[in-house]
């Protein structure tokens, strides 16, 4: 990041208050993002961060943004989770004349100043390619989705996987009818049901690592660890460990909340400092396998 | 044991309802406590049983000062109470209601077989053997529930038994069982404190009588030294010459007729007619099906067969609203459960049936309603006079009963069915109610008065229908029959 | 007359005989109301003194906007609670009505689309009410099943969020009349009309009475079933309206919106002194309950309390509020 | 004798006078039980005939595993519902107990860590019960506030999931005794012991009686408050246990787990015929309710019904089930 800290701004000495509007903190990825932003602010000094949590309620997100604007923050960072868009929140920020940085989630409508996040479909494709390569003889691949159906992050990941695997001969896709709700417990139950209906699965893809970890237990309980390989997304610590340990958890796509969060805060400060910034920044999501997993293990990471 | 109250006072948040009551009860006594509605009898009893604390005064047991902080303390001293309000747990068996809190156990667990056996033994020993201890208490008739309440108080062989209006819901042989029980307890040296509005039974059972008025004991006497009318005079604070008005009925046209009405399992093939200006009594023992009949005529329950005709035409009441539209009104026997909405104001309660008819646009015509309800409060002298905005539960029992009456009178019915309208009501209020029914009949109303009180049925009506096991077994002229004759019909043994 | 004592003076006792000082104004007992207004006043005062941004116009407007959804749902919930029932399906109805409205905006005039949203809420309320009244099923389970089913239907209608392009769609949610948002005015109107309905019309009084003692009401010739259905229909209508307003305010309709909204609505009613057993509850106090909830949320945000601590505190504050309420409650 | 009608024969009428055929076996009325067992049998039969994977050992084991959490929570919920209360906080307690246990595993012996988890549930139950019994607050709001607060505390304890390394942590959740998972056996044991507790011990009977008429119980010299506290404590303990078992089964404890678990637990009780007004409910029928819910979920998955259609159907099936239940219910 550029060292715009010292640059005098209209505000004065480079000390800013930045509001963070989280759509939800109810998942490790999102709370990791929130912490990363706060940590980066601390590292920079002179930056105060006010964080809010909408508990997964779009209207509350709008209210929270309004509350932040009431407190006269200099800029707003929105961690929109699975939200498709938040027109009211964006309009309010625009009316107040403040910059807004989106982290992780790019909104489909509305005006924002800058976005930093992953390309979820690309992560999915990456996983798809990996699975295709591991299953040269084809086989059944299960997909466990997080839900609900309007969660377009999950949708993008699944679409990525599907776009690759659908064209591969010999591979059949089995979409779990029920959602895993992005948690390990959900991943476990959905996997159990899948194992009951399709005993000949060769691989499973989950829309995030948390669900994969649950699915991995279900597979282990069923004694099928040798038969079914697992692919996830996120780079959650437990998943990295499982990959490193050489289990049937083979791959995940890094979606690093620490990096995105820190970049988001830097981006906001740069904007406040008057810098010209890139509008959309895709943070690459490298594929993590046993070979490179050690590199991404971060004992201090918040996620 | 000897129980003594000295200068007992009780106030409910600043309003004193007992002003220094003195009372002595000795073993083997039946101490009757009588007084008008709201005199403070139940309050006194709650103090005796530890359910309420006194604000001043003291209690002595066998000469020693005693203080009760909870009903538990009273239990520990051998004092057991049957309260005025039924308090069984309907979802539990009779056994469980009886033995609650002291079940026989085997290896730490409740021994149900032993418990049922003990309950049966207990019920039989006090003459209530007809009750099966395994049935759910809620399935029993109100009378039987009351008997269970009494049995409950006797589980632990009390030294003092307090009964608050135990007879209000009993009749016939159930009542006899109760009297026999009280006498046996007395012989065993138990002190029985007995509250009742039925002065005849007080005269029959009591060894001494305490008259309470406005929170004070105004007289202590014995049956041998007083009379019913003297007691009534003491309670009311004035002389009462006549309880029942003179009836000189000149019945008009038929207002309501019932033909072969049957509701399977409840009553069968009931036929009768009510004429304008007539008061017809409906007598029967508890469970003879009178209330069910009334509810069915009123459209609250469907009939299996038979017809109801109003002013000649056949009608089929699908719901009470149909009956009301045809000019009927039903004052039910249980004002708490079916007569009042306790949490609402007197105004709302009295205006309930007529609210839809009293509109201005979409709104209730508040001024007119207030006026009409006010008239009713005046006419029935519901106390206190400014009660319209009070919650109806804060009225005393008798006044609540009047509020129910007011609700139905406001609907200006042509046929009025009264189911036990004087239950738990003190004598002066009763007299007021009899007057009023009489006045209404004189104005052309047809009245059906259901009652378990023989003197009431005889005194207040022109004609009496008697029911036994769901059938009408007799029709008698009130001025030409006797209590014995009515009873004979009621138990199905008339010639 | 009889030995009837005069009615208690302006004091009352709780069951254990302690005194509760009473406040009577113009013959009405206003103890509860006074305590409640004091509570809200204290909250506002504390807020104004400790959070310097609290009294800014922006924040006050925020407050007004933020109470709309909870407010609308709470009024409907109150009506249902008064009958002794409960409506857990309101959050799902909010989602359904919003997504249907947003979906129809492209083909229909905006007011018509919005009307359809409200009508869908009415429809669901009717079904809830009919099941509960006609078959005497437990309201908790019927509306719990409805919660699930209607949520599913919202997704069946559209799996993805719908963001109408037409700026007219946003008007309802963002327009203001002077400093006051139109949506807030709509909610206030609902409370006003609703207050008159419950206190001054026959159906309103019937609904209150049914919660007190349904059998008495039936025997008084009032059709209990019809009024129970009416209550759930009102709740459905309020939820439908809330869904439309919310979608318009957020600018996008999501089928997943509104999870757990019912809990806040119920909390508002109970904080306002309503009894879940039915028959007791007031429109004004429920509005007070909404205010309390919105104030708590707003303050915790203004103080910058950490998200998880916010949850911890919110729960504790609600307990504290109902404890304060309780010491002022008149027990019957 | 008097003109007393004989006690009702083995038929009864519902309020509108229709007859309900009754089934009396050995003096006990088993109408409800028979209807319910038939219902479950029909569900199982339909499942076995239409879904060929239903009767496979894997699926049957799944069923056994999947009923554990709902089962444990439902028993605790039943105890609370019997007193006339409700416990909305169980889902949050599941999360708290799980994450605390997982957090402690690294420092403490596993059984001790698990005991701490259960004890934390007991503690929360105690607080819920104390607030409800001592201050006579509405159970709905107290446990709703607890839901929020305890969820917050779970996140305060750890924002991220905790996955203990020690394989001993998984034993409880994954060990089997023959074909039956140990966790299922634990749940069955809770139901068995719980059934004995509720039907054959004085505190159990007191809890049932309190829901029927608390004042009577008080007048019988039984400490009502203590028993209400006991009921919530039992619910808390069950939730704590469920949290530990779930964490052990999944292998990872998450602070976000358990949202809306309370709804399934309540539904199971009501499907089993429990009355939310208290005093009525059976342990066996509640277990039946759990079975019904788990079967519905399992079947919808086996048929591969799309997620949101699953929601739609689940709601409709629950309505259908309580409709069937209702026609067999004996009203008192
Ligand atoms: N909890 C209470 N709070 C306020 N006043 C009360 C309360 N309980 C009773 N009272 C008042 O105390 C007075 C005495 O009531 P009590 O119930 O003792 O009368 P009673 O003699 O038993 O009458 P009844 O014959 O109608 O049963 C009445 O005026 C009543 O309104
Ligand atoms: N709420 C009830 N629950 C169960 N059984 C009832 C109930 N009410 C009445 N019964 C039963 O129905 C039968 C007829 O009762 P009903 O009330 O019609 O008789 P009644 O002659 O009016 O007697 P009562 O003097 O008790 O009013 C009785 O056997 C009674 O036990
Ligand atoms: Mg009394
Ligand atoms: Mg009767």
UniProtKB/TrEMBL annotation, chain B:
UniProt source species: Planotetraspora silvatica
Taxonomy, superkingdom: Bacteria
Alphabetized Pfam families for the sequence: ABC_tran
GO molecular function: ATP binding; ATP hydrolysis activity
Protein name, per record: Ribose import ATP-binding protein RbsA 2
InterPro entries with a match to the protein in the record: AAA+_ATPase, ABC_carbohydrate_import_ATPase, ABC_transporter-like_ATP-bd, ABC_transporter-like_CS, P-loop_NTPase
Transmembrane parts of this sequence: none
Assigned keywords, A-Z: ATP-binding, Cell membrane, Membrane, Nucleotide-binding, Repeat, Sugar transport, Translocase, Transport
Domain ABC transporter span(s) in chain numbering: 3-239, 238-494
CDD domains per UniProt: ABC_Carb_Monos_I, ABC_Carb_Monos_II
TrEMBL record, chains C, D:
Topological category with respect to the lipid bilayer: Multi-pass membrane protein
GO cellular component: plasma membrane
Keywords linked to the UniProt accession: Cell membrane, Membrane, Transmembrane, Transmembrane helix
Listed GO MF terms: transmembrane transporter activity
Keyword Membrane listed: yes
Subcellular location as annotated: Cell membrane
Regions that span the bilayer: 30-51, 72-96, 108-130, 137-157, 177-198, 228-247, 259-278, 285-302, 308-324
Protein name: Ribose ABC transporter permease
Lineage start: Bacteria, Bacillati, Actinomycetota, Actinomycetes, Streptosporangiales
Gene: rbsC_1
């Amino acid at each position: 990041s550029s060292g715009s800290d010292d640059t005098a701004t209209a505000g004065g000495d480079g000390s800013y208050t930045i509001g963070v509007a989280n759509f939800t903190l109810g998942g490790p990825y999102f709370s990791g993002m929130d912490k990363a932003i706060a940590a980066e602010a601390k590292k920079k000094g002179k930056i105060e961060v006010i964080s809010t949590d909408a508990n997964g309620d779009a209207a509350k997100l709008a209210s929270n943004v309004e509350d932040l604007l009431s407190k006269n923050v200099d800029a707003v960072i929105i961690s929109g989770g699975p939200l498709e868009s938040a027109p009211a929140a964006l309009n309010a920020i625009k009316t107040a004349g403040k910059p807004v940085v989106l982290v992780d989630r790019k909104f489909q409508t509305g005006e924002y100043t800058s976005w930093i996040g992953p390309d979820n479909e690309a992560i999915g494709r990456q996983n798809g390619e990996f699975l295709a390569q591991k299953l040269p003889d084809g086989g059944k691949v299960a997909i466990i989705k997080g839900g609900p159906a309007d969660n377009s992050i999950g949708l993008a990941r699944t679409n990525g996987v599907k776009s690759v695997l659908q064209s591969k001969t010999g591979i059949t896709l089995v979409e779990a009818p029920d959602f895993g709700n992005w948690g390990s417990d959900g991943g476990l139950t959905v996997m159990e049901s899948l194992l009951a209906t399709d005993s000949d699965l060769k691989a499973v893809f989950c829309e995030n690592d948390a669900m994969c970890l649950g699915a991995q237990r279900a597979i282990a309980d069923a004694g099928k660890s040798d038969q079914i390989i697992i692919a996830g997304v996120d780079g959650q610590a437990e998943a990295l460990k499982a990959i490193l340990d050489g289990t049937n958890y083979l791959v995940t796509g890094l979606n690093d909340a620490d990096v995105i969060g820190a970049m988001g805060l830097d981006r906001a400060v740069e904007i406040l400092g008057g810098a010209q910034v890139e509008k959309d920044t895709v943070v690459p999501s490298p594929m993590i396998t046993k070979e490179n997993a050690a590199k991404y293990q971060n004992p201090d990471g918040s996620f | 044991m000897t129980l003594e109250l000295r200068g007992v006072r009780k106030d409910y948040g600043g309003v004193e309802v007992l002003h220094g009551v003195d009372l002595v009860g000795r073993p083997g006594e039946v101490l009757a406590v009588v007084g008008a509605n709201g005199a403070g009898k139940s309050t006194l009893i709650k103090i005796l049983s530890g359910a309420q604390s006194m604000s001043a005064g003291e209690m002595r047991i066998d000469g020693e000062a005693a203080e009760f902080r909870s009903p538990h303390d009273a239990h520990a001293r051998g004092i057991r109470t049957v309260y005025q309000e039924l308090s069984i747990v309907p979802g539990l068996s009779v056994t469980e209601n009886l033995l609650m809190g002291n079940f026989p156990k085997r290896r730490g667990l409740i021994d149900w077989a032993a418990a049922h056996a003990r309950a049966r033994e207990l019920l039989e020993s006090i003459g209530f053997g007809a009750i099966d201890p395994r049935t759910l208490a809620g399935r029993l008739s109100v009378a039987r529930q009351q008997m269970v309440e009494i049995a409950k108080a006797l589980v632990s062989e009390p030294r003092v038994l307090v009964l608050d209006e135990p007879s209000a819901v009993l009749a016939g042989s159930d009542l006899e069982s109760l009297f026999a029980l009280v006498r046996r307890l007395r012989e065993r040296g138990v002190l029985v404190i007995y509250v009742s509005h039925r002065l005849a039974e007080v005269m029959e059972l009591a060894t001494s009588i305490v008259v309470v008025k406005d929170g004070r004991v105004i007289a202590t006497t014995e049956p041998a030294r007083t009379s019913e009318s003297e007691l009534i005079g003491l309670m009311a604070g004035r002389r009462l010459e006549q309880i029942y008005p003179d009836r000189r009925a000149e019945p008009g046209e038929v207002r309501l007729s019932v033909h072969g009405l049957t509701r399977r399992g409840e009553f069968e093939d009931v036929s009768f007619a009510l004429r304008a200006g007539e008061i017809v009594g409906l007598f029967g023992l508890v469970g003879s099906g009178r209330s069910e009949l009334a509810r069915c005529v009123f459209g609250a329950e469907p009939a299996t067969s038979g017809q109801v005709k109003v002013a000649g035409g056949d009608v089929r009441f699908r719901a009470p609203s149909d009956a009301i539209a045809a000019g009927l009104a039903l004052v039910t026997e249980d004002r708490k459960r079916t007569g009042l909405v306790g949490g609402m104001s007197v105004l709302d309660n009295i205006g309930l049936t007529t609210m839809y008819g009293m509109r201005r646009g979409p709104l209730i015509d508040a001024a007119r309603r207030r006026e009409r309800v006010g008239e009713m409060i005046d006419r029935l002298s519901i106390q206190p006079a400014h009660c319209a905005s009070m919650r109806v539960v804060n009225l005393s029992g008798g006044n609540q009963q009047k509020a129910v009456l007011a609700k139905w009178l406001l609907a200006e019915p042509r046929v009025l069915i009264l189911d036990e309208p004087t239950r738990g009501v003190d004598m002066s209020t009763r007299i007021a109610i009899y007057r009023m029914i009489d006045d209404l009949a004189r104005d052309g109303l047809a009245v059906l008065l259901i009652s378990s009180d023989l003197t009431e049925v005889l005194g207040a009506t022109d004609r009496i229908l008697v029911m036994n096991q769901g059938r009408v077994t007799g029709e008698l002229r009130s001025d030409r029959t006797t209590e014995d004759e009515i009873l004979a019909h009621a138990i199905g043994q008339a010639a | 007359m009889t030995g009837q004592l005069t009615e208690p003076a302006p004091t009352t006792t709780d069951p254990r005989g302690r005194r509760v000082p009473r406040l009577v104004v113009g013959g009405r007992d206003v103890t509860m109301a006074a305590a409640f207004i004091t509570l809200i006043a204290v909250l506002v005062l504390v807020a104004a003194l400790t959070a310097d941004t609290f009294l800014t116009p922006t924040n006050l407007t925020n407050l007004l906007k933020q109470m709309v959804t909870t407010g609308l749902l709470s009024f409907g919930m109150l009506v249902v609670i008064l009958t002794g029932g409960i409506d857990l399906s309101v959050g799902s109805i909010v989602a359904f009505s919003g997504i249907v409205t947003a979906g129809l905006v492209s083909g229909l005039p905006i007011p018509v689309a919005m009307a359809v949203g409200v009508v869908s809420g009415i429809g669901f309320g009717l079904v809830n009410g009919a099941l509960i009244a006609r078959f005497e099923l437990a309201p908790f389970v019927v509306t719990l099943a409805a919660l699930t089913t209607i949520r599913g239907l919202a997704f069946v209608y559209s799996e993805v969020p719908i963001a109408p392009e037409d700026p007219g769609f946003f008007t309802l949610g963002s327009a203001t009349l002077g400093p006051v948002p139109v949506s807030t005015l709509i909610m206030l109107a609902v409370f006003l009309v609703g207050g008159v309905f419950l206190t001054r019309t026959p159906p309103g009084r019937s609904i209150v009475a049914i919660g007190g003692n349904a059998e008495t009401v039936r025997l008084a010739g009032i059709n209990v079933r019809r009024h129970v259905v009416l209550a759930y229909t009102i709740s459905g209508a309020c939820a439908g309206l809330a869904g439309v307003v919310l979608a318009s305010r957020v600018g996008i309709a999501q089928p997943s919106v509104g999870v757990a909204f019912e809990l806040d609505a119920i909390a508002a009613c109970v904080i306002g002194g309503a009894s879940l057993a039915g028959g007791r509850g007031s429109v004004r106090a429920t509005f007070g309950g909404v205010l309390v909830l919105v104030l708590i949320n707003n303050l915790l945000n203004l103080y910058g309390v950490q998200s998880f601590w916010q949850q911890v505190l919110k729960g504790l504050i609600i307990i504290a509020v109902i404890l304060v309420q309780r010491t002022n409650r008149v027990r019957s």
